[in-house]
Amino acid sequence: MVGILLPFAGLLAAALLWAAGAGWLGAVTPVAASFSPGPTVDALLQLLQGRDLWEHVALSLQRVAVGLVIALLLGIPLGVLTGLSPLFSRTTTPLFQFARMISPLSWMPIAVMVLGVGDAPVYFLLAFAAVWPILLNTAAGVAQLDPNWLLLARSLSATRRETLLRVILPGITAHILTGVRLAIGIIWIVLVPAEMLGVSAGLGYFILDSRDRLAYSDLMAAILVIGFLGYLLDHAARSLHRRWLHA
Amino acid sequence: MNRPLAEADVIRCAEQTPAVLEARGLSYAHAGIGTLFEGVSLAVRRREIVALLGSSGCGKSTLLRVLAGLEQPATGSVSFLGEPLASPHPRSALVFQQPSLLPWLKLADNVGFGLDFAHQPRAGREALQGRIAAAIEAVGLKGREAAYPAQLSGGMAQRAALARALAREPELLFADEPFSALDAITRAEMQDLLVDVVHRWHSAVLLVTHDIDEAILVADRILLMGGRPGHLAQEWTVDIPRPREDHPEAVTALRLSILGALRHASL
Known about the structure:
Chain B: Keywords: ATP-binding, Cell membrane, Membrane, Nucleotide-binding, Transport. Chain A has helices spanning 2-28, 37-49, 52-84, 86-100, 108-115, 119-143, 147-155, 160-194, 203-212, 216-245.
């Protein structure tokens, strides 16, 4: 019982701090009153009844999906190659570690210049952010494959294709799913700033637009929505991981 | 019944009953560790349980892999059912120290794993289902077909690994310390089970072990491996009736004979 109540207690405490902070800020700058929980909840209910917010959400989730798929298509083969070939691994490890540490957002001006205004640079930034955890976890998964599984496959005279599809890929799926979970977390964080440039819809755009309209309650509502959706995405990725392992 | 092993003996044995596996003059070398073993000749006859006994690191696991066709020897040759062996034979199967079940497959799918691979003998779907069911029943896991490996105890998982080998209806089962990770009680159960099922399946077994008691309780013949580089030092034919626990004097005598050989050979 306590175990169920504790998370709610944490959220409630945060809400109280939020109310207190907004109240204190409101005493200094009157406009800050619209940051407080009451107006935010009103704005949120309003937004949930309308169509605009849902369209922004749908577009943002679609970008997450596209970015993730691109990252998977690049990250899994590269990760398998890194895990299987010491030569490839030694050649690329410094490069990957170097590229991984560059904030994807620093590519934004170049991405917009090369790929133009619109969805393409956002996809690029999201995929660039998400490819590293997928690649590195895939490679780690290959390195941690039970050698006996490969021996078993060889004792069955498995073809390369059979070994890859029946042993290696399922054997690294748990690691790939770990990578996907980390990637979703990173994508969700990069998404909002990435949508602040060159696009005219999405949650990041909605934040900027709310600021420009001086609709600060909408802005706070959007922050709540972003947090909640991120929580749901992470939860989904976790349960996918658990279901695969049957744990 | 105990005497130094000579090549002539191996060949004579092989001529008495058809050998499932026959190896002559095997040596194996690996860059960095040098020659691991040399001059190894042995034969495993049909339905015979042979224990390859040796201390850890004497090269017996590598010898097993060479005999199974998973590694190529530096010199010498291996034949399986009279044919030279270049790659693992479809009528052989492996059991490892760890069950190494595939965690994403249900027990029945683990037991049937690989039976449909391209290089395996063609068999109808129903025939394969029958083999899988028979193997699962033989190891006492009937009713657990839908369980995932994470839901099985260590002993049950090793039973499932044994069933996976049986489902291939092997002429020869290669077992590399299959029970050494199990607790003493489970190990004794598994040793009895192994003898029981390979007799019912008419399979021969090559059991690699460092456990003298396991070799005595399970094997029809014991080959002692040791030295650097490793070689086969001595051979015992175990003609104690089963269950061997009922013949403690004979077991003790054989045990002392093996311990004496270990000491004299300073393996």
